[in-house]
Amino acid sequence: xxxxxxxxxxxxxxxxxxxxxxxxxxxxxxxxxxxxxxxxxxxxxxxxxxxxxxxxxxxxxxxxxxxxxxxxxxxxxxxxxxxxxxxxxxxxxxxxxxxxxxxxxxxxxxxxxxxxxxxxxxxxxxxxxxxxxxxxxxxxxxxxxxxxxxxxxxxxxxxxxxxxxxxxxxxxxxxxxxxxxxxxxxxxxxxxxxxxxxxxxxxxxxxxxxxxxxxxxxxxxxxxxxxxxxxxxxxxxxxxxxxxxxxxxxxxxxxxxxxxxxxxxxxxxxxxxxxxxxxxxxxxxxxxxxxxxxxxxxxxxxxxxxxxxxxxxxxxxxxxxxxxxxx
Length: 327
Fold this sequence. Notes:
The chain is an alpha/beta fold. It folds into 2 domains: 3-143 and 267-296, Response regulator (Rossmann fold, 3-Layer(aba) Sandwich); 148-266 and 299-326, Rossmann fold. Helices cover 43% and strands 20% of the residues. It has 14 helices and 12 strands. It has helices spanning 3-14, 21-24, 41-56, 76-88, 99-106, 148-159, 177-191, 203-214, 227-231, 233-242, 252-256, 267-282, 304-309, 316-321; strands at 28-34, 65-71, 93-97, 114-119, 138-142, 165-170, 194-199, 219-223, 247-249, 261-265, 298-303, 324-326. Strands 7-6-8-9-10-11-12 form a 7-stranded mixed beta sheet, with helices on both faces. Strand 9 (247-249), helix 11 and strand 10 (261-265) form a beta-alpha-beta unit. Helix 3 packs across helix 12 (267-282), helix 4 crosses helix 5 (99-106) and helix 6 packs across helix 7. The chain starts with a helix and ends with a strand.
């Protein structure tokens, strides 16, 4: 062998291998179970944040990563079928949004590693043994502190002081509903506000309940955290505008879609954090050893255009607290 050729081979052997070369040899598979439509802007925003963090950690679709998506739009039977399909594909880890989908997933399997987002009470629902030590195949990020219900009512009264009657939009199947309403009722007594519970049901029945509530003056609304509310947000926002009901919502996406204002956990940020957990699991960590995190970042978004349409003058104190103001 010529000396030049030998030295070239020697240099090539000594050159450090790329950091992710070992990963590239095996394509890892993530199954994604979401509760909104694929073309929903909120779905796209959540996934963009998730993928951005994964990319920064060295994972790239088509090189060392494959993602399989399933969408359910609140259909529990479909969620269960979707979960079974992804597990059959041999995914390495599942990213799951919401208590409803998690409940269906546990009926299919408790073996595949799971990172969940926006689950109300994973301990009470039996998804994990405890927040600090999940102990099983699942870990992730909770969606809410029940005391937030009182905060919603306080903010609504600041935004619209004349409100003395509040319709609470709820999904009776949602795990978090009882705790949120308990907090609302405790603060309602102090603020002198009368609460009316309205269930999310068939479209005509729900619209009729809102119309009946709005016949009396000084009304407002609180929309609690539920997948159904997000799925039907256009209808809820439209009814609030039609009946001129000042309304507070749980997530930023409602204000972006025309709702008056929102206060709640930053869901997009939770998807970023979920990506760090998925990365750790793909590199060998066990969900049982990764503590469940409670929301730490809350945000308020105000839609001034909607406030103007309702003839509301947003108090300076509320404006000063806003993370974003939509003109």
